[in-house]
Design brief:
By secondary structure, this protein is of the alpha/beta class. It has 2 domains: 3-40 and 108-233, HAD superfamily/HAD-like (Rossmann fold, 3-Layer(aba) Sandwich), CATH 3.40.50.1000; 42-106, no CATH class. It has helices spanning 3-12, 41-59, 63-75, 81-84, 86-93, 97-103, 114-124, 136-146, 158-161, 168-177, 192-201; strands spanning 28-31, 127-132, 154-157, 185-189, 205-209, 226-227. Helix 2 crosses helix 3. It binds magnesium ion (MG).
């Protein structure tokens, strides 16, 4: 039975797909940051509550009206690099977004079992890279808080590549600056659209994170092996 068949059968029987690899198959590991290593609760709270609150205060609006206006504004640039560009939002909203991010950085937290998993990767001698759509300023705020930089060979922001991970071109451009073998690379991300783009490029081993936020219910992917925490990959 090949892994694609067993993956399909597990869905048909209502179970979750198991990752179809063993660690000796893997040389390089790409890890998303927000919702994969770090609790997405911070980002959700920041954009959905904190920014609307500050924006409402500044513009003499009531909070629900400010929130509704901003959620619509966010949607207009979803899945683009603008969405993650703190300078773009600072200018568009007339707020110092990087400063606001710092104000609530105590809410930045590492998801369960991530630290153990990163130590396990080091023990196994894997090349581990952080690959994020986050803006360099957002990355800085988060790394100051969680101190995980030394776990990675390199931290790569989409801004450096010039397109968001959702775009197939991202993976071509990434390959130019960081040669890697698609067949022996594992990539974990909480956004299916990003995994689809990586799959389209041919990255062989893809893992979906089913619970990006500690405050929201888990949602398993129907397309990729989908884990609740990295403990499931420590085999
Ligand atoms: Mg993410």
């Amino acid at each position: 039975m090949n892994s694609a068949n067993s993956f399909q059968e597990q869905f048909e029987t209502g179970g979750q797909a198991r990752p179809g690899f063993t660690w000796p198959d893997i040389e390089t590991v790409f890890l998303d940051m927000d919702g994969t290593l770090l609790d997405k609760y911070y980002d959700d709270y920041f954009w959905e509550h904190y920014v609307p609150e500050v924006y409402a205060r500044k513009n003499n609006l009531d909070h629900p009206a400010a929130r509704q206006h901003l959620l619509g504004t966010y949607r207009s640039v979803e899945n683009t690099l603008q969405w993650t560009d703190l300078d773009y939002w600072s200018e568009r909203l007339g707020l110092d977004i990087a400063k606001l991010k710092k104000e609530i950085s105590h809410l930045v937290n590492i998801l369960p079992h991530v630290v153990d998993f990163l130590a396990y990767m080091e023990d196994l001698g894997k090349k581990v890279y952080l690959v994020t759509n986050a803006h360099p300023k957002a990355l800085q705020v988060k790394m100051e808080r969680v101190q995980l930089e030394t776990c990675f060979q390199r931290l790569i922001c989409s801004q450096e590549i010039g397109v968001a991970k959702e775009e197939p071109a991202f993976w071509h451009k990434l390959h130019n600056i960081l040669p890697y073998d698609k067949e022996t690379t594992l990539f974990a991300d909480d956004t299916e659209k990003v995994l689809h783009s990586a799959a389209g490029y041919g990255i062989r081993h893809l893992i979906h994170i089913a619970q990006p936020s500690s405050r929201r219910k888990a949602q398993h992917s129907r397309h990729y092996p989908s884990i609740l925490s990295f403990r499931e990959l420590m085999f």
